[in-house]
Amino acid sequence: MILTAINIGIAYIKNKWYLSPYSLNLESLGEGNFIFVGSSTDEWAANVPAEWIEQVLDYCDGFDNWYLFQSKNPARFLEYLDHPVMRKSVLCTTIETNRFYPDIMRNAPVPQELIERF
């Protein structure tokens, strides 16, 4: 199984979130793939509308694949644990340091909070 990175549905461009109908209209994600959904954005960020997340999860559930979802806001995963796609998903977060540098980590949670949420 090969891990494929794809931005399905949500993009963050010039400080604004967008739901991309183009990527939700792809004919097929195939089957038997392991897809890193939203590899260059955080689909689970606090300011992403719930309806958008649901649309992406529903779309992914329509294909026989495994999915990797990563977030700096892993507490939000809890809202969607009952979604059918979660039976074939891996949830993860990254913790780069135990220090917090507010000048460069503006919107990221304090590392200790991130650990507690996950």
Description of the structure:
The protein is α/β, with parallel strands linked by helices and 118 residues long. The chain has one domain (3-117). It is 19% helix and 21% strand. The chain has a 4-stranded parallel sheet with strand order 1-4-5-6, with no helix packed on it. A two-stranded antiparallel ribbon has the order 2-3. The radius of gyration is 15 Å and the shape is elongated. It comes from Bacteroides caccae. This is DUF5131 family protein.
Q: In the residues, how many domains can be counted?
A: 1
Rg of Cα set: 15 Å
Spatial order of strands in the largest sheet = 1-4-5-6
What is the mean pLDDT? 77
H/I helix tally? 3
Quick one: overall form? elongated
Strand content bin: 15-25%
As residue ranges, the low-confidence spans are none
Helix and strand run: EEEHEHEEH
Number of strands: 6
* Distance between the ends: 26 Å
Fraction of residues in H or I helices: 10-25%
Class computed from helices, strands and strand pairing: alpha/beta
Question: Biggest sheet, open or closed, and with what strands and sense?
Answer: 4 strands, parallel
